[in-house]
Amino acid sequence: MVIAACAELYNHQFTTLQGEKLNLCDYQDKPILVVNTASKCGFTPQFEALEAMYAKYKSDGLLVIGFPSNDFKQEPGDNKQIGDFCKLTYAVKFPMMSKSSVTGVNANSFYKQLTAKTGQAPKWNFYKYVILPGGKEVFAFSSDVQPDSNEILAKIKPSLK
């Protein structure tokens, strides 16, 4: 669904794994860490650092948002299975969207925009994007860059309250 009166990059509404609506327009004045996830990936333990960052910086304005995807053949579960896995294995509380594609022609429109803005599509699971407030700058980080790395924190921290 497309929402009017919102910057183009944020003009998206998603449904979480729990069936709640998330309107990105509500977050266009905040830094956002976006990550494509998979339950059966070697990088899956990064859920711990992602959740820790969300817990630590949420009150300062950070939104961490996950997009489960089977594009790399490591997310076989349905939305309920993914939600249960995230909650029970990693106590994930940050918003996880319904399963979708993040690469190629079938990528969801938000990921197509992230790819266009950075020139980099996800090359694997747990590929990360940092969107600075207003969407003026978007940075891509490879899967092996930890969510709480100095590299990512250096981009996010100046935009926190």
Strand order of the largest sheet: 4-3-5-6
Shape: globular
Cα end-to-end separation: 30 Å
Helix content class: 25-40%
Biggest beta sheet attributes: 4 strands, mixed
Could you walk me through the main structural features you see in this protein, from its secondary elements to its overall organization?
Strand 5 (128-131) and strand 6 (138-141) form a beta hairpin. The protein has one domain: 3-Layer(aba) Sandwich (Glutaredoxin). The model has no long low-confidence stretch (mean pLDDT 95). The strands form two sheets. It has a four-stranded mixed β-sheet, with helices on both faces. The chain has a two-stranded antiparallel sheet with strand order 1-2. The termini are far apart. The chain is built from four helices and six strands, in the order βββαβααββα. By secondary structure, the chain is α+β, with helices and mostly antiparallel strands. The chain has helices spanning 46-57, 79-90, 109-118, 150-156, and strands spanning 13-15, 21-23, 32-37, 63-68, 128-131, 138-141.
What's the short story on this structure?
It is built from four helices and six strands.
List keywords for this structure.
Glutaredoxin, 161 residues, 4 helices, 6 strands, single chain
